[in-house]
Amino acid sequence: MSDFEPDSRLVEDSYPVTELPLCQLRLMNDTRYPWLVLIPRRQDVVEVFDLDDDAQQRLWQEAGLVGRALKETLGGDKLNIATLGNMVPQLHVHVILRRQGDDAWPGPVWGQGTAEPYDLDALAAMRDRLLAMVEGIDALQQD
């Protein structure tokens, strides 16, 4: 969709990883948590119900598949999947791998401490891992 633009706050806080069939996959710039954001490439979508039924199913499928692969690849204790949108109304889904004892455990990650940005080497390494992880998900390649 050529007219799709992610909200500028999402762009400022994250790095692009790849394009899935429905969503743009981005990595949040905070090394404390393996934290991905899926943004459906649709303009003027604020709530999940703003998507048609097929796109809603695809959104949850992508979130679940990416989340499972993230947990299997990096290990962790709990996967958090959430849509909030209080600060950024454009529909986006957070997929966050949590570990007992992480900076915010057991509470939510939002508003906890100060983000620890990736340096260029760590960013490149994490992006490569994520790309390999996504390429390994056969169900994401079907559309």
- Beta-strand portion reads 15-25%
* Biggest pleated sheet: 5 strands, antiparallel
Structural class: alpha+beta
Low-confidence stretches at least 5 residues in length (pLDDT < 50)?
Answer: none
Characterization of the model:
Keywords: Hydrolase. It comes from Halomonas organivorans. GO terms for molecular function: hydrolase activity. Pfam families: HIT. A hairpin with a 6-residue loop joins strand 2 and strand 3. Helix content is 34%, strand content 20%. A five-stranded antiparallel β-sheet has the order 1-2-3-5-4. The chain is of the alpha+beta class. The model has no long low-confidence stretch (mean pLDDT 94).
Key features?
143 residues; alpha+beta; HIT family, subunit A; five-stranded antiparallel β-sheet; 4 helices; 34% helix
State the gist of this model.
This protein has helices at 8-13, 53-74, 120-135, 138-141; strands spanning 14-19, 23-28, 35-40, 78-82, 93-98. With 143 residues, it is an alpha+beta fold.
